[in-house]
Specification:
- The complex is a heterodimer of chains A (403) and B (319).
- Chain A is of the alpha+beta class and 403 residues long.
- Chain A contains 17 helices and 14 strands.
- Chain A folds into 2 domains: 179 residues, 3-Layer(aba) Sandwich (D-Maltodextrin-Binding Protein, domain 2); 179 residues, 3-Layer(aba) Sandwich (D-Maltodextrin-Binding Protein, domain 2), CATH 3.40.190.
- In chain A, strands 1, 2, 3, 4, 7 and 13 form a 6-stranded mixed β-sheet that branches.
- The longest helix of chain A is centred in the first third of the chain and has 22 residues.
- Chain B has 15 helices and no strands.
- The chains are: A alpha+beta (403), B mainly alpha (319).
């Protein structure tokens, strides 16, 4: 009898543990006057953003709490929060994901809060727009350009290349026994796609028509860089971070990469680097590079008052002065054209990217939520070509035939 | 099961209907207690094993997208996901790669693991220390391990190519991770390295259980060396071997982290397996329905081996 009694006690104690564990889930909610912000800032950038958050929260009469999530895990977190109705009041999304998430109905249109995107380049507006309404707005943006070791170019008596022809020649010229002329990322992921886009787009090719002659020419150029021996065959396995490491280690005289690497490039001793916009097919052509950067969105949390406050908060965060602070702190370009011009004046290296983002195109501008599929096709074709599995024309024809 | 347990010391023979009310209440209490003990285990299995598997099976028949997470709507599409997966250009590649990867890894892990186990069976100074050192690959986080292997296997500056070139085995650097013909071999080699400790440990403990008398008796009959292995060690080790091989297959089929860390499925999908393809579809393209369809194929294959494992296990118990 007594034994049974203790047994019942033990079993109910176990049940109590399970119950209290599930109760913990509720503690993530914040009170009525606190805005919860989820962003993807790293430990170094987070303080810069938090300062801006605090100032803007005070302006709209709220408190703010920021959660910093790793960029790679953000979408998983957002989906989990969307299904459990615990989305934050303000959510940062990588710009090519905005349309995908907006199409699900999880976000509210920023027009409701008077945010129109006036003064922002068309690329930023396109990236944040779904079905005619603006859902996300990026305060700072980026793109990719050509970084080079200034000393190596001077030694070889070369000017920074401006056309494809010059790029191929310069890369070959700069290649020595223990250094490649150029490094770029052609990895089996969206990073590889992102780095091929400026060549595709500047030549007039689009992701909707991948087996066009223009696309073939672009892939042939990149393929030639590897075939010439001017770039390592390892580019098919290099992320953009790896590319930067190769450049820093002196294994490549030029690299295709973005302005976010500038802090580490500045810190490298004895490296005199500079950057120019990526070369275009022929003199006078317009560079069309992909637009990077994270957009702020206001999820539909079902609390209109708080959403209105969140809208005001976002309007403040993406304001001109804050853009300058974020851009300087992170190696990015202010989205607003006028502020960007000011940034270019104070920091000449940023100037390269200021010009580039003015004409940069959003990855989702053409295909919207179908972009990920096209992105997979693009990097698959590049991998097929660069590993000599197929010729660039065959590779593009193959992926374009797949749906 | 409950009835045998419920039989109390005095109430065992008495029919329940004639039991006095107090005893009946005691009996019910006891039953409740038994169920309370069972409930956590049942709940655990249902929540953490039953639900995900059923959910995954169902997802394979649904158009499960980003939208589903917000609206909860997942339209039923029948076999459309499976049709899309099977007809996609990559399916055949992933199946062949999965088979090659699994067979190659298991063969390498098992043979080397067995050799190590046999080696350590002879006790020698520091053998215990060395044996524990061999467990290291098992203790390392896979992502860290694969990052280091990426350096080792790097085409230009990697230590493996430098060494092979230095001693004159090869003239040109081997494109370990960047040639579609070699990358799968390289990934298998790394996975063999990861799997050796598992195979060695289990086989070693299996060897420990073979009585020395068998060898002594065998030696009298002239069975030494290779003969002793063929006629004594191998038959006695068979049950353990079955378990090691079947568990190895199941673990290897689902390997994701090593491949993602080394090649991300590239170059040109040369190392894309069912597991990495399922991951790519679900978490890069957000096409959770087709991702689930691929992983269901994987589940069925694993299940076949799980059944083989259970049967092998039962046979081992019977022996």
């Amino acid at each position: 009898m007594r034994r049974t009694h203790t047994a019942v006690g033990a079993a109910s104690a176990a049940a109590a543990v399970v119950l209290s564990l599930s109760a913990c889930a509720d503690q993530g909610r914040a009170d009525a006057d606190t805005l919860v912000v989820t962003d993807t800032m790293s430990a170094t950038s987070a303080p810069i953003y938090e300062e801006i958050y605090d100032a803007c929260a005070a302006e709209v009469g709220m408190q703010v709490r920021a959660n910093h999530v790793a960029g790679s895990g953000l979408i998983a977190t957002v989906l989990q929060q969307a299904s459990s109705r615990t989305l934050p009041d303000v959510l940062m999304l990588d710009n090519p994901d905005v349309q995908q998430i907006a199409s699900s109905g999880a976000l509210s249109p920023l027009g409701d809060y008077g945010i129109t995107g006036d003064g922002f380049p068309q690329g930023v507006i396109d990236a944040g727009t779904y079905d005619g309404a603006l859902y996300g707005i990026a305060p700072v943006v980026n793109s990719i350009g050509l970084f080079y070791d200034a000393e190596a170019l001077t030694e070889a008596g070369l000017e920074p290349p401006q056309t494809w022809e010059q790029l191929r020649a310069a890369a070959a010229e700069l290649t020595t026994e223990d250094r490649y002329g150029i490094a770029f990322s052609a990895t089996n992921s969206f990073e590889g796609t992102w780095q091929l886009l400026p060549f595709l787009w500047s030549n007039g090719a689009t992701e909707g028509d991948l087996d066009s002659p223009e696309a073939v020419q672009a892939l042939e150029l990149v393929d030639a860089l590897v075939a010439d021996g001017s770039a390592s065959a390892s580019v098919v396995n290099w992320s953009q971070n790896d590319v930067n490491d190769q450049f820093l280690a002196g294994n490549a005289a030029m690299m295709v990469n973005g302005p976010w690497n500038m802090p580490s490039l500045e810190a490298a001793e004895g490296l005199e680097y500079d950057s120019v916009p990526l070369p275009v097919p022929a003199p006078g052509d317009t560079l069309v590079a992909p637009l990077g950067g994270e957009a702020f969105t206001v999820p539909d949390t079902g609390d209109p008052d708080k959403m209105a406050r969140a809208g005001e908060f976002v309007d403040c965060v993406v304001g001109g002065e804050n853009q300058l602070t974020m851009a300087t702190g992170r190696g990015a370009v202010p989205a607003d054209s006028a502020v960007a011009a000011e940034a270019a004046r104070t920091n000449p290296t940023v100037a390269t990217f200021v010009d580039t983002v003015q004409t940069a195109r959003a990855r989702t501008a053409l295909l919207g939520p179908d972009w990920p599929r096209a992105a997979t096709q693009i990097y698959t074709a590049e991998q097929l070509a660069l590993t000599d599995t197929e010729s660039p024309a065959e590779a593009l024809e193959r992926v374009a035939g797949q749906d | 099961m409950t009835t045998t347990l419920a039989a109390g010391p005095t109430g065992a023979s008495a029919p329940p209907r004639s039991a006095p009310p107090t005893r009946r209440r005691a009996r019910r209490r006891e039953l409740t207690a038994q169920w309370l003990f069972l409930v956590p285990a049942i709940a655990y299995v249902l929540v953490f094993f039953g639900y995900p598997i059923v959910k995954n099976l169902v997802m394979g028949f649904q158009d499960y997208s980003v939208r589903t997470f917000v609206t909860g709507e997942a339209p039923w599409v029948g076999l459309a996901n499976y049709a899309e997966v099977v007809s996609s250009g990559i399916f055949q590649t992933t199946v062949v790669n999965t088979v090659l990867f699994t067979l190659g890894s298991i063969a390498g892990q098992f043979v080397i693991g067995l050799l190590f186990a046999l080696f350590f069976k002879r006790r020698f100074p520091l053998s215990n220390v060395l044996r524990s050192l061999l467990l290291l690959p098992w203790l390392l986080p896979m992502i860290a391990g694969s990052a280091v292997w990426r350096w080792i296997l790097d085409q230009d500056g990697g230590i493996l190519n430098q060494t092979l070139q230095g001693v004159g085995i090869i003239d040109d650097p081997v494109r370990w991770l960047t040639s579609p013909d070699i990358a799968l071999v390289a990934v298998i080699l790394v996975n063999v390295w990861v799997g050796i400790p598992f195979n060695m440990t289990l086989l070693y403990s299996g060897l420990q259980n073979i009585p020395d008398e068998l060898y002594e008796a065998g030696a009298l009959d002239g069975a030494t060396g290779w003969k002793a292995f063929r006629h004594i060690t191998w038959p006695s080790l068979r049950p353990v071997v079955n378990v090691v091989l079947v568990l190895g297959v199941i673990y290897t089929l689902k390997v994701l982290d090593i491949i993602l860390g080394l090649t991300g499925g590239g170059p040109a999908n040369a190392t894309q397996t069912l597991a990495t393809d399922s991951y790519r579809r679900s978490f890069q393209e957000f096409s959770f329905g087709t991702g689930a369809a691929v992983s269901n194929v994987l589940i069925v294959i694993s299940l076949v081996f799980a059944v083989v494992y259970l049967r092998a296990n039962r046979r081992a118990e019977d022996e």
